[in-house]
Amino acid sequence: MSKTYNNNFTDELRQRLSIVDVISRRVPLVKKGQNYWGCCPFHNEKTPSFSVSEDKGFYHCFGCGEHGDIISFTMKSENVDFKTAIKELADMAGLKMPEYKPRDPAAVAREESYIQITDRAATIYQQKLFEPAGAHALEYIKKRGFSDDMIKKYRIGYAPKNSIISGTFTNIKQDALIATGLVRHGDYGLYDFFRDKLMFPIFNTHGQIVAFSGRSLDGSEPKYINTTDTELFHKRQTIFGFNFAREAIHRANRSIVVEGQIDAIQMQCHGFPETVAPLGTALTEDHIAILCKSNRNIIFCFDGDNAGQKAAVRACGIILPFLRDNSDVRFAFVTGGKDPDEVLKTGGESAMKKIIDSSVGLVDFLWDTTNKSYLISTPGGQSQAEKFLNSQIEKITDIDFRHTIETTINSRKHDTWRNWKWINSQKKKDDLKQINLPSVDEITGKTLIYIVNTYPELVERYGEFLSSLNINFDAAVSGDLALDVKSAEKYIVSLKLHKYIEKLQADKKELVQLMLSGDAGAKTQIEKIDSDIAAANKKLELLIGD
Fold it and tell me: In this prediction, what percent of the chain has a pLDDT beyond 90?
């Protein structure tokens, strides 16, 4: 029955909604291997024989034989007709119900003709890449490390400066050619949208070419231009390389998301076949929905610059509603002004593997991002940071998982942020009592501010001593002193010993005056202080020699 309706909308529902999310609202599911299992809702059973494949979008009961997708499940489990099931699923997906009409055979034929045009265009582009006019494009892609086999597999080509497509497809109706996005109508007739571009075909999940991404070869901006949205192609719903990566994502039990198509291809061909990329647009909810249907374990691998950091924060915010307690989302960054393509060329697969293996988990990424973005040493900064963390955690729809993340974050806030509050409160108490605190020089002060900001665990250990110093720990940190945690702790301990020795020497000076004035007991106290100073100096020698 569903085939008489608009397939584009039902396909979008299947793309947007995870079958596991739909079925788990009524059937408790447990993941075993690649699939999820539960007791069949369509017949009585005690041993689970009801299998759900998130990647394929189907369920199958090995007990009673029931089989179908999210639409048939909704119809059967709720005993409703097709339109009612579609309405419920549309509400769940946040999509507006279209006005259903019988599928137009002419529309089906039209879409098929578009795919024939784009496929033939890809063949023409690839031929041109190996002709004299495409020599500079071939030289460029070869220098980027692309072999003939890679060029053939990904059907990479070259769009010449003249309008090759509009000049070749003269027997095709203009409207059909324009509808593919390959050509446009100008003052003097049709002209090619892609000219003097290195061409990357864009495939749908079925392996059909539906669009192209063209890279400039003369240094002009934008670097990449993509086919504008058409009946066949929507940038926000298309993931570059997904058709090649789909099976690998299954095998690797994860996907890797990089920023560009060249990076994605190089990663796929050099040890990371589970890699994909968005198409010149920021990552969208539709992209994440597609990836999560294949696997909810995702590593975002972005450049380490500010743009890459911002992209990672945005990706984190988008993926949170899709997470469940079996999700493993991680973030890796390529530093040194490089991208995955450059890392693979200079360091090979092993260098890239180190970057992927050093990725940080979701909680660590959220925590580090928050502490870098807000001045948590001040009450106002902590308030802003808490609001940000709460806004992110609230996006998690899996209640139990959200509670776990919230508990972990709260524990970190308690262990770290409370030390800032303790130091500042102690300083305020001391200020009120007008105690003359020991001062430190400017270099020492800056060093301690750096240590306290970099290693909050040392604040827990030495908070009482740090709070006794005349230092404004709210001051901004400048520069990187490159102190590891061991060296930082030695610095604090040595300073503490120096301050202790200074106090002993000051006490000794007062006692000497008392002894000279005839105080008989002062001599014994001086001897005790000399012993304490000698012991403190011994500790300093051992600390320096360590």
Answer: 34
| Contacts of residue 248, Cβ cutoff 8 Å, sequence gap at least 6 | 268, 273, 274
With vertex at residue 307, the alpha carbon angle to CA 303 and CA 309, rounded to the nearest 5 degrees, is: 70
The DSSP-derived string for 404-467 is HHHHHHHHHIIIIIHHHHHHHHHHHHHHHHT--PPP--HHHHHHHHHHHHH-HHHHHHHHHHHH
255-257 sheet: strands from edge to edge: 275-276, 255-257, 297-303, 328-334, 360-361
> How far, in whole angstroms, is CA 531 from its chain's centroid?
58
Report how far residue 486's alpha carbon sits from residue 455's, in angstroms, rounded to the nearest whole number: 10
Question: CB neighbours (10 Å) of residue 252?
Answer: 16
For residues 325-360, one letter each, b for 16 or more C-beta atoms within 10 angstroms of the residue's C-beta and e for the rest, the string is eebebbbbbbeeebbbbbbbeeeeeebbeebbeebb
Element (H or E) spanning 527, and its range?
helix 522-545
How far apart (Å, rounded) are the C-alpha atoms in residues 299 and 498? 48
User: What's the CA gap between 314 and 302, in Å, rounded?
Assistant: 12
CB under 8 Å, gap of 24 or more: what pairs does 33-39 form?
Answer: 34/250
DSSP string, 328-388: EEEEEEE-TT--HHHHHHHHHHHHHHHHHHTPEEHHHHHHHHHHHHS-TTSHHHHHHHHHH
**331: confidence class by pLDDT, cuts 50, 70, 90:** very high
Tokens found for residue 478: 């400048």
Contacts (Cβ under 8 Å, ≥6 apart) of 301: 256, 257, 258, 332, 333, 334, 340, 355, 356, 359
CB-side exposure of 363: number of CA atoms within 13 Å?
15
Using one digit for the tens of pLDDT, what is the confidence trace for 43-87?
888 888 899 988 788 899 888 888 989 999 998 888 888 888 888
Instruction: Please tell me the predicted confidence (pLDDT) of residue 18.
Output: 87
Q: What is the 3-state secondary structure (H, E, C) of 529-546?
A: HHHHHHHHHHHHHHHHHC
Of 270 and 538, the structure prediction assigns the larger pLDDT to 270
Query: Is residue 268 over pLDDT 70?
Result: yes
247 within 8 A of 205, measured Cβ to Cβ = no
pLDDT tens digits, one per residue of 414-467:
777 765 555 555 544 444 343 343 456 777 878 888 887 777 777 767 777 777
Question: Cβ(59)–Cβ(68) under 8 Å?
Answer: yes
Q: Which residue has the tokens 């020492």?
A: 444
Contact call for residues 316 and 362 (beta carbons, < 8 A): yes
Q: Is the pLDDT of residue 1 over 50?
A: no
Per DSSP (E only), the strands in 455-524 are none
Torsion of CA 157, 162, 168, 169, to 10 degrees: 90
In the prediction, which pLDDT does 3 show?
Answer: 40
Q: Around Cβ 482, how many Cβ atoms within 10 Å?
A: 7
One-letter amino acid of 528? K
Task: Give which of 421, 430, 489, 502 is closest to 461, Cα–Cα.
Answer: 489
Q: Is the pTM of this model over 0.70?
A: no
